[in-house]
Structures are given as structure tokens and as C-alpha cells.
Amino acid sequence: MFTGCINDSSVEEIKLEKGTLVHVGEAFRIGIFEGATLNDEKQIILQEDIMKGSYTSPVVKTKLFKELVASWNSITAKNSETELLIKIKKDEKWSQWFSYGKWSLEGERASIKNQRDKIAYMDIDTLVVLDGGYADAFQYKIMLYRNKANIDSPRVKLISTALNLSEKDETTTAFVSDDEWMKEINVPKRAQLNIPDIGRIICSPTSVSMVLEYHGINYDTEKAADLVKDYGAEIYGNWSFNTAFAGSRDLYSYVDRFDTIYKIKDMISKDIPVVASVKTKIKEDLEGTRMPYPDGHLLVVRGFTIKNGEEYVIVNDPATNDENDIRREYKLSQFIKAWRNIVYIITPNLYK
């Protein structure tokens, strides 16, 4: 077990060359531990007999960004919680610490309203730089809590951030052949609209539960919705809470921002279905949908195909009450316009 506290000035800053940071394992050795440590599995835990502790990352210098979405994967016993805090730097000035709210799998998870200072504000799961400006660094702190010293410590296995950069990374993936991504993954199908009372507002947990079942973890859809609910915003679509739930067992999960469809194709080539966020004004924006999605919608990308010379994306769209109507094929050109570039990655292995 690692029991040290690393805060040497030579390692207080690291540089992020791309838009996504994923910290696991050895990455946590660089930073400051207070009442916390790493266990043999390189997960952040509380020290023995300590009820509150933290790990603070080095300062992460980045390219210019205007938004940040953070993710974490924690295993929490009853009466234990984690809380992720983020601060950003703009024009050489640091913001306050912004909280993603205290989180536990079985507790009443809640985002925190009205978080704002002169640099940024928190919009549920997205930290937004004010006045159209850009930040160029951030730092995170993960807090761990338990009510009593004899309760198992929370175990934090992943922290991730996805940045909306001023310069997009439109790098394409070099596939040996189109056959690598032009295929279909057999993802189980689930409908959201046949769920009583909450059916119209649980596209996110329904999509997550489909991917979890694909990976061998089976939650009832209503139970999945209960375990992602944000009691602060009273929604089921908090991106960070959804990936925290998906990563609370044997998988890794985080929110990512892809600037190009080639990155989704790369995931499909590795047999990793992804949950994608789309938004449309009218049905015709994405032909074949049952309804428009003006407030945003989550669905599962399970493959790609070509018909009559045009590319199509194959999805499980949960916005139906008929399981025979879930698998859809949407024109890729329309999907790219509707896609908000946000995805959930849910995987047993982390792909760089």
C-alpha cells in the first residue's frame, strides 16, 4: 500500500496535449494526499480510522478550452461518499473550487445549484468559462467521506475530464480496411417509453443499461434510473452521474468529447458501443426518429453500414415502447449534425 504524500514542486504541473484526461492507477501517485492513500489496486482510499480525506491532482496545463465535463468512478459502501471538485485558470487567475456534489451509489446524489464566480459557472455537469472566454489550466480534488471509521472506505479508481477546446482535434483514424468499423455489435435492446411515470425522461439510464448488459452487468432499467438520478436538478440525464454509475462495478466509464465521427468508428472497431448525445429541432433533422429531441437525447451507437452508396449509423434508440422498434439506421450525414460530440465510454479496458 502506498502511504506517502507527493507534493514536490517539480511535479506540481503536468501538461495535457489533447482534450481528454483519464487518470487511473499510477497517475494518482503524483499529487497531494491528505488523510488518504493508494491501496494495492492503486485506488484512492481513506487512511485507517480517518473519516474524511482527499487527493489533489497536480495543476494540469491545457490548450485553451471553454467547457469542462468531469467524471469519476468510485466504489462506495453504505454511508460513504465521494465528491469531485474542479477549479480552472483563466488569464492567470484561478476560479473557486466547483463541486459536482456528494455522490454514492445508493445515496441521494445531488448536483449543487448556483455555483458561479467571476471566471466560470457550473451548469449541472458542465463547468463553463464565462463571457465566451477560455481557460488554460485546471486542477481537481476528490474528497472521500464515511460516517464511521469502521465503514469501508470509498475506493476511487478513475478521474477524467473532457474539454471543449478552442481548436478541434479532427484527427482521423487510420483503419486497415473499412471492415474494421463497418460492422454491427449485438447490443441488447431496451425501450424507455414503456416505463411508467418516468419513461419520457430516462433515455440516458436506459442507454447506459443497454451497454452494461452488453458487458454482462444486468440492471433493471428502472433500477438503473434510480441509481443515476440527480436529486439536486431532479433529472436522470446528469452525464457525470450516469458514467459514475456505469463505472461503479467492474467497468471503467467516463464522459468524453469526440470532435470527429472517426473516434466513434474507432470504438466500434474495438467492439465498444458508445452512448451518444444528440439534439434536433424537428423529426426531419434525423430521418427515422419517432420524435424530435429539442432538449437532447441519449442513444447507443452499435455500428455502421452503407446502403446505396450512403453511410448510415446503426443505433439502439430507446425512444419507443416497442423493443422491435429500437434498432434504427440513421443517415450518418444527419447524425453528425445532430450529435453534440458528447459520448459515454463504458468499457472493461481503457483504450488510449
What do you see in this structure?
Pfam families: Peptidase_C39_2. This protein has 352 residues and is mainly β. The protein folds into two domains: 14-165, Galactose-binding domain-like (Jelly Rolls, Sandwich); 202-347, Cysteine proteinases (Cathepsin B, Chain A). Helix content is 12%, strand content 37%. The chain contains five helices and 20 strands. The protein has helices at residues 203-214, 221-228, 239-246, 261-269, 332-338; strands at residues 13-15, 20-23, 32-34, 36-38, 44-46, 52-56, 59-75, 80-90, 93-94, 98-103, 120-123, 126-129, 135-146, 155-165, 252-257, 274-278, 297-307, 310-316, 327-331, 339-347. Strands 1, 2, 3, 6, 7, 8, 9, 10, 11, 12, 13 and 14 form a twelve-stranded mixed beta sheet that branches. It has a six-stranded antiparallel beta sheet with strand order 15-20-16-17-18-19, with helices on both faces. A two-stranded antiparallel sheet has the order 4-5. Helix 1 crosses helix 2 (221-228) and helix 1 packs parallel to helix 3 (239-246). The radius of gyration is 20 Å and the shape is globular. The protein starts with 12 loop residues before the first strand and ends in a 5-residue tail after the last strand. Mean pLDDT is 94; it is low at 6-11.
